[in-house]
Model the fold of this input.
Amino acid sequence: MAKIPKGLSDKDMLQGYVEQVTLESQFLAAEEAEDKRRRARAGLSKPEKNIALTGFTDDLTEELGRKLLELKMELFRDGIKNYTMKVKKDGQSIIIKPVETRQKTGGKSVRK
Done:
């Protein structure tokens, strides 16, 4: 058995390695190919990470993230550091509202 040289990166150590085809890898590849075909027929590009985010495009998610970041920065500028976000539905609108929380110190709560 050859001596393993030190200081090699993972890529260098695995250079020239070819994985043997096994029954398991064949089944996994066939399953993945079938999943891709099924998604292509259904018009889905990739599996949804979270069912609650269904219908959110990447642009919409990015825009929502930017607006929330702006809100966080405004709260920080106003000196509000301890808060939670409350979400409520009002008719056909969704409202996300920051609610300041009280920080507990010792036995009594202190509002900063």
In short: The mean pLDDT is 83. Residues 57-110 form one domain.
